[in-house]
Amino acid sequence: MKNKRKGATVTQGIVVNDLKISIYEMKKEYEVHALFKDKEDIEERLDKVMDYLSDEGYFDEKKKVKVIGMVFGGR
After folding, report:
1. What is the per-residue pLDDT across 28-38, written as a single tens digit (0 to 9) for each?
2. Residue by residue, what is the 3-state secondary structure of 19-63?
3. Other C-beta atoms within 10 Å of 30: how many?
4. How far are the Cα atoms of 48, 65, 74 from residue 28, in angstroms, in the given order?
């Protein structure tokens, strides 16, 4: 689901590889928020998710992508 916020387009509701993803597209960059419970292999899972989102066309190659991972109620 996409919606507009002041200064950013937000895509929410993406679930990939047990991660809940929100993408904030701003003028010069993207900020990707990933929520997860299980920290096991998180770097590898995040890499795979970012590759998938890139392959699916979520990002413009000219913009930087900043990834923020947040654990909730996890181990």
Report:
1. 999 999 999 88
2. EEEEEEECCCEEEEEEEECCCCCHHHHHHHHHHHHHHCCCCCCCC
3. 20
4. 23, 9, 33
The pair of structure tokens assigned to 38 is: 């299980």
Q: Name 58's Cβ contacts closer than 8 Å, sequence gap at least 6.
A: 11, 23, 30
CA dist., res. 32 & res. 2, Å (int): 14
Q: What is the pTM of this model?
A: 0.82
Which of 33, 15, 38, 8 is CA-nearest to residue 23? 33
Within a 10 A sphere around the Cβ of 42, how many other Cβ atoms?
15
